[in-house]
Design goal:
Number of helices: 6
Strand content: 5-15%
Strand order of the largest sheet: 1-2-4-3
Oligomer: single chain
Structural class: alpha+beta
Shape: rod-shaped
């Protein structure tokens, strides 16, 4: 698998939970080539390296919501969600050549996702500006059409003057 393809594949595994971009323990274990329980044991053994903003347990409700797109998660009773920092910390816990290589690809995927979101935000701002600009133009065009319609209406008959006319 080339780096570009791998980064794209990894990017599809990044999900949003509790407003954070995370990767699930099952996906990470698969990428690192270890069993999920082995990965989670390594995290538990090194608990001080994984504060709550690095890794957190998913609630059953979150697992069920995510399992609609990740069928292997459906039967899990527990699942860890790793933020970008948590994934980075995994490289120091899972110290193998594969872990290091996979970790580099995952970090690139997070960066790529951030770049895409930034580009999306910039485009949204530009579109909003265009909409505001053309809303003003629309009002002016509407006024022009109203004036043209008034000019195209047949003239009203002049009122008859009463009295002598010269």
């Amino acid at each position: 698998m080339t780096n570009a393809i791998a980064v794209d594949v990894i990017a599809t595994r990044i999900q949003e939970v509790r407003g954070k971009k995370v990767m699930l323990d099952k996906d990470l274990a698969k990428l690192y080539g270890v069993e999920t329980r082995v990965l989670n044991q390594a995290v538990k053994r090194n608990g001080s390296r994984f504060p709550e903003d690095f890794v957190f347990f998913l609630t059953r409700k979150e697992i069920m919501r995510i399992s609609q797109s990740v069928t292997s998660l459906k039967f899990s009773k527990t699942a860890y969600a790793f933020t970008e920092q948590g994934v980075a910390m995994l490289s120091s816990v899972l110290n193998s050549k594969r872990a290091i290589q996979v970790n580099i690809l995952i970090m690139r995927a997070f960066v790529q996702l951030r770049d895409i979101l930034l580009t999306h935000k910039e485009l949204t701002v530009k579109i909003d500006a265009l909409e505001r600009k053309y809303a003003v133009h629309d009002e002016h065009i509407k006024d022009i059409f109203e004036a043209i319609k008034r000019l195209l209406q047949p003239p009203q008959e002049p009122k008859r003057k009463i009295g002598f006319h010269a």
